[in-house]
Every structure is written in C-alpha cells, then in structure tokens.
Amino acid sequence: MPQIPQPQKQTFLVVDDHALVLGGTLGILKQEYPETEILTAPTAQEALRQVEQSHPDLVIVDLVMPDTIGDIAQANSGLQLLKLLMEQYPHLNIVVQSAHVRTLVWLKPTIDNHLGGFTVVDKSQPVKDMLTMVDWALRERTHTPKEIRNGIQLKPTWMQVLHFAFQEGLQDTAIAKRMNVSERTVQYYWTKIRDVLEVYPDDDKNLRIQTELRAREEGLLD
Q1: Is there a smaller number of Cβ atoms within 10 Å at the N or the C end of the chain?
Q2: What is the CATH classification number for the domain harbouring 186?
Q3: Could you read off the pLDDT of 132-180 as tens digits, one per residue?
C-alpha cells in the first residue's frame, strides 16, 4: 500500500534578546502552532547562523537587539539583520515584532522589493494581532504601518497590474503573459498594492473589488 506523503513540518525562528518577551511569544506560538519546531536566537549574528542552517518558514524579529553576545542592544542591529535577510533570502517570510516600527522607514525600498511575506506588529498590540501577522506572513502577504508608506506611491509595475486588471479586465494569468512575468510575481505585486492601499483580507468582502474601489478613491484609475 503506497504511503501517504506527510506534510512537511514547519520551522519558525524567533529573534529576541528579552527573556520575558521571548517566553511569552514562544508560549503563544506553541499553543497556536503545536506541530511547528520553534528555534530562538538572542543576537543578530546567531539569527543569521540559524537561518542559514535551518531554512525556517518564518522569522519573527525584534528590531532592538545586540549584534553579538555582550554587545549593547540597538535598533541598528535589527535593521541590518532584516536588510541582510531580505537580500540573501528574498522569499523568506518575516514578521517584525517591535516597539520601534517607525525605524523601518529606512528599509522601505528593500521591503518593497521583498518577495516573501512581510508583516509588522507593535509589541503593544493584542496577541490576536500578532497571530494574524504571523498567518499573513506565512501566506506571503504584506502589511506595514502607515508611518513607513509615505503616502500613496505605487511602482510602475504595480500600476500596470491595476491597469490590466481594472481597465482591461484581465485575470492574473493573462496579466502575467502581458507583463512577461510569472503568475506568482503578479500575486506578489498584488500584495504590495494592497498594503499601500490598506486593503486587507475580510471574509465578508471581495478582495479584488475592494482593491479596485480604493484605487479609484485615490485617483489611480480613470
């Protein structure tokens, strides 16, 4: 009798040097994802080593951390770690969990180009918000705070997607052919567009229609 293939076990990496916060995050994640292997790293250098060795499905990163053991925790270490992770692992799913999310504005171009999930949650937000951001990142969605979006600014390729979808009525497969990219790339463009327009999944609403309505409200479509 042929064996039924088992789903691959997920691995998360939580990067935080505060034992109390780390313990709380681990407890929440273990309860919500009991089958997931959860690794930890207290420094930026240890995080890089763990990602290289373990290839996690998701990394949850605090921004203020030491670069190596014995160093002072600082936001620059977290920002440099994020930049390296996005450059070296463009499809890595990332959640930033920090009380200093505004500093992410320095990484806006890198975040805009990141192909994996990228979500942000303030440490002061409820647990359910953190779990939502984890879920969205695993689904390769993007969610960033208003402070780092700098208003409604869409890249030319993102504007092309809006035009093909809502001016010409094309579906993603046809859009991909017209743009000479993969369908997955078109879906990635959608996540970036929706983040800027602040359109997020809602069980009661059609995501594509909501995106079109917001784009028209902002004058991005004729």
Answers
A1: N
A2: 1.10.10
A3: 999 999 999 999 988 777 666 788 899 999 999 999 999 999 999 999 9
- What is the pTM for the complete model shown? 0.81
One domain for residues 86 and 126: yes
Q: Which domain holds residue 88?
A: 11-148
* Residue 128 and residue 163 share a domain: no
- Total domains in the chain come to 2
49 and 104 both lie in a single domain: yes
